[in-house]
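I hope you will forgive my troubling you with a question about protein structure. The matter concerns a single protein, recorded as an amino acid sequence and a row of backbone structure tokens. Please examine both parts with care and let me know of anything in them that strikes you as inconsistent. Thank you for your consideration; the sequence and its tokens are set out here:
***
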Amino acid sequence: MVSVFAQGGVSLCGPAFGPDGRLLVCSQGSGEVCAVENGALVPVLSCGSPSGLCSEGGVLYVCDMVFQGVLRHEDGQLTELVKEYEAKAFKGPSSIAIDAAGNVFFLDCGPLGETTLADAKGSAFQITADAQLLQPLALECLAHPSALAIAPDQRTIFVTEMMTNRLLRLVQRAGAFHCSVFYQFSGRMGPSGVACDPSSGTLYVTQYDIKEASLTGLISVLSADGKLLREIETPAAELTGVALSPDGSAIFVTEASTNTVYTCAV
């Protein structure tokens, strides 16, 4: 059963668990990263317009639309990790994840409407752990890639491509990533967030739609082999991200039109 976990902020998105174990969310409209405490949102970091988060080894990584780059927050200091590829500025990173080997994966899509079906210029990038090399996995060919998740095998990356309403799978083989359509959705605008259970490979995918078009939101639960297991309905439609609790017992979902964080046992 879906319930309200917290409310506050402006245009919530990008839920993730921080270095200290607290649930963090991006308040994109106010330019803050907030921690959820007793049903309220407490600002813990000010930046430009945060859109995605992940943490590793005590470091918080922040995708930011205003700075058009990925930021690194450690010991109270906010620094720039990456902002361009081959001297060309990013449009605005949207999501980030780090695998067990320390490879960093992130998406670049810009604000909603900048990378569309007619102008699919979104990208997926990797910063390799060994040589700190920035390389594209999909360069300026995606229609608003909004979120990513790493599978338990640490060689498979799932990417939500919102404007084509599908979930992509990038599988690493012999050092290269091969991309295919893992699941094609229909109906709503498209998938906005994805979380992957590290033990079972079960995927939780939030479906975004404009509030004027849908009264309720939808979370699709997919098996590791791409079968739809069930759907979870939420009270509002503009779902923008999902995070799985560290113990795998619950999901936390952000919704932008009501600035609500929902939770549901899994």
